[in-house]
Amino acid sequence: MSKVIALFGAGSGLGTAVARRFGREGYAVALVARRAGPLGALADTLQSEGIDAAAFPANLSDTDGIPGVVEAMRTRFGAVDAAYYSPASTESFLPASDMTVEMMRERTELLFHGLVAVVNAVLPEMRKRGSGAILAGFGGTAAKGLPFMSGPAPAQAAARNYLYSLHGEVAGAGIHVGMVTVSGVIAGSDYHREMEKGSHDAPADLEIPVVDAGDVADRLWRSANGTGELESTFPA
């Protein structure tokens, strides 16, 4: 039976690259995102490339529903060997001074609580068999706050901190934790297309480098196999 990677946040940029990178290594790919149409189209594309893939549409802000999504994956593929969490937030960057408790709560549900729910759902089986990988992707503002670029960043910073702690707890059990922090835009992503049209939400004077999704996906592959770093930053 093939190993399984579950992508929680299977978008057009990095998520697709991660699916292809692991699929080339023989992994079955479980795809999770909110919009069923694009998700199904991605699954069909991967299938046409010889990768066993299936779509599991879900709202990752609904943390109570995540165990059911993981159970559906088990029914279709078997136990999850690697989980990658990086849902695309449609929320704009905002000044920290404009953030309210409710605005922060919404972002935290998706970007932090959802990750914790995924770990809760997959970690027990990983511990039992003594192997597995927990992977995640963040924007650069998760590691370094910038003026006028709050919004998703504080929630991602919490998730990053959580994974640093988790790494120290599970490394001795054969479970690898790996993160990529991207201070730029992923080539081919929806945000990259918006940037090319001049309609992105970052400060006008901010220079945004473009990062190759394949390079980032390869680093996550190495982390999943215990040959990479706990956290890799892009651009290097």
UniProtKB/TrEMBL annotation:
Gene3D superfamilies: NAD(P)-binding Rossmann-like Domain (3.40.50.720). It holds the Pfam family adh_short. It comes from the Bacteria. InterPro entries: NAD(P)-bd_dom_sf (IPR036291), SDR_fam (IPR002347). PANTHER family: OXIDOREDUCTASE, SHORT CHAIN DEHYDROGENASE/REDUCTASE FAMILY (AFU_ORTHOLOGUE AFUA_5G14000) (PTHR43431), OXIDOREDUCTASE, SHORT CHAIN DEHYDROGENASE_REDUCTASE FAMILY (AFU_ORTHOLOGUE AFUA_5G14000) (PTHR43431:SF7). This is Short-chain dehydrogenase/reductase SDR. It comes from Methylorubrum extorquens DSM 13060.
